[in-house]
Design goal:
Elements (H helix, E strand, L loop, with lengths): L3 E6 L4 H13 L2 E5 L7 H9 L2 E9 L2 E2 L1 H9 L1 H5 L7 E8 L6 H14 L3 E2 L26 E4 L11 H21 L1
Helix pairs in contact: 1-6
The structure holds flavin mononucleotide.
Length: about 180
């Protein structure tokens, strides 16, 4: 079976919930980037062995968090040898506003995957944007590059809109299906 890893940072727990949903859909294991921007040393071996890597970060000030960026820069050692070339990659971000400049973060995650010579997986869902659409619907935020999630600024980690969480599971499944096809 394909090895899939979700590697993510979450400052206040909301992105962690999203990461868990993506991992549920992908049947993936999770690696948390800590508050210092580090992952356990053994996690690098897991990432090297993975068939697919899904990045996740909250959007802070219109970009991935500095902890995620520190991790991203640490992957430059692997970039030098193109050690992750042809792996499958996906990515997600979560922020308080509907827009909130999430796309900037997502493009940063896609670019990181491309620097590594990876194969990027898009969201693969039509937007739910009719008059009848609600926050319970799949892809109500209308993403395409990757997964977008909105956690209202006063929402606890248990109050992330259900449609976004379902979209996270769906995206995880899609990454797993595409990884299996390429295996
Ligand atoms: C320093 C900081 C900067 C933020 N910048 C943005 C932003 O640019 N756009 C936005 O929509 N939300 C922004 N937010 C809100 C967070 O993205 C949101 O609360 C998110 O759910 C936090 O995820 P976490 O609990 O995993 O840390 C910011 C929050 C913090 C703490």
């Amino acid at each position: 079976m394909a090895q899939i890893i979700v590697v993510y940072h979450s400052g206040y727990g909301h992105t962690k919930v999203v990461a868990e949903k993506v991992a549920e859909g992908a049947n993936a294991s999770l690696i948390a980037i800590d508050e210092h921007g580090d992952i356990p040393e053994s996690a690098w071996d897991e990432l090297n062995a993975a068939d697919a890597i899904i990045w996740g970060s909250p959007t802070y000030m219109g970009s991935p968090s500095w902890q995620f960026k520190k991790f991203a820069e640490a992957t430059s050692k692997i970039w030098f040898t193109q050690g992750w070339k042809d792996k499958v990659f996906g990515g997600f971000t979560n922020s308080a506003s509907f827009n909130g400049d999430k796309q900037v973060s997502l493009i940063a995650l896609q670019t990181l995957a491309s620097q590594h010579g990876g194969i990027w997986v898009s969201l693969g869902l039509l937007p739910s944007n009719s008059k009848d659409a609600t926050r319970k619907d799949l892809n109500n935020l209308g993403g395409s590059v990757g997964l977008l999630v909105q956690s209202p600024s006063d929402a606890s980690v248990d109050e992330i809109p259900q449609g976004d969480l379902d979209t996270a599971v769906s995206y995880g499944k899609r990454v797993a299906e595409i990884t299996a096809k390429l295996a």
